[in-house]
Design brief:
The protein contains seven helices and 14 strands. With 251 residues, the protein is of the alpha/beta class. α1 links the parallel β3 and β4. The chain starts with a strand and ends with a strand.
């Protein structure tokens, strides 16, 4: 299994012979507006793509955890092949069809695709009124030849993430952190304490932290998270740089 962090939540996952593009945000640096009501009002994304667009657009399939613009932007709508298998949460398929995509696959529970089982999980995109207003979000578990990958999506540490870990017991977990937030309210994705809690909950799993330093409302940096992980003696956390590929052999 190979997992390449492109930037933010955009990943290129290789399972066997299949390449799956996760949460494609394909805009050039600085071409999207800043997130409103956030403490770091810089245009997004904060950096360019870290591999050629042509390599991303030839993926065998794509998976969109939800339709917020930092996970599926206007450039992705424009550039992705309209016939690409596009896995999504229920309720997003009609919007994807309105963008002329012909093969969205809403996953209510699970489906099988070319030897890969893909299951949907739930999440909580923040707390209180903000969490409600952010709308529904999903994560996805990919199982292939005895290996399992859980992409948690935009969620804080909550009963939904705990339930997914308990049910699927994934070997690898990708979490969106960065402590993204607005001027009021708490984080809408995992903050550093959530990351530590999750790592301790699944000590046998390899945990990959992404969703940092690429969008203006993400305030937690990689160095801050690394320092806390060292202080708390967390051994199963991986914090890749943008463009970095991690390769995991079956145990």
């Amino acid at each position: 299994m190979k997992i390449r962090l492109i930037r933010h939540a955009t990943l290129l996952v290789t399972l066997g012979a299949k390449r799956i593009l996760i949460d494609p945000m394909l805009s050039s640096a600085g071409t999207m507006s800043a997130v409103d009501n956030s403490p770091n009002p810089k245009p997004n994304p904060l950096l360019d793509l870290t591999m050629p667009l042509s390599d991303l657009l030839t993926a065998d399939a794509a998976c969109v955890t939800h339709l917020h613009r930092d996970h599926f932007d206007e450039r992705a709508k424009e550039l992705l092949p309209k016939t690409i298998p596009l896995f999504c949460q229920p309720g997003d398929e009609e919007k994807l069809r309105s963008f002329s995509f012909t093969t969205p696959h809403p996953i209510a529970s699970s489906l099988h695709w070319d030897g890969i089982t893909i299951s949907r999980t739930s999440g909580q995109h923040g707390t209180g009124t903000i969490g409600v207003n952010m709308g529904p979000v999903s994560g996805f578990v990919f199982e292939h030849q005895g290996a399992s990958l859980y992409i948690a999506g935009d969620t804080i540490w909550c009963n939904d993430t705990k339930a997914a870990l308990d049910r699927y017991r994934p070997h690898i977990v990708v979490i969106n952190t960065g402590a993204a937030q607005f001027l009021t309210g708490g984080p809408i994705v995992m903050d550093s304490e959530d990351v530590i809690t999750l790592c301790r909950y699944v000590p046998a799993a390899k945990v990959i932290a992404v969703h940092m330093e690429a969008f203006n409302h993400c305030l937690l940096t990689r160095n801050e998270l690394r320092a806390l992980a060292r202080e708390r003696q967390i051994k199963n956390l991986f914090i890749p740089g943008d463009g970095e590929e991690l390769v995991f052999d079956p145990d």
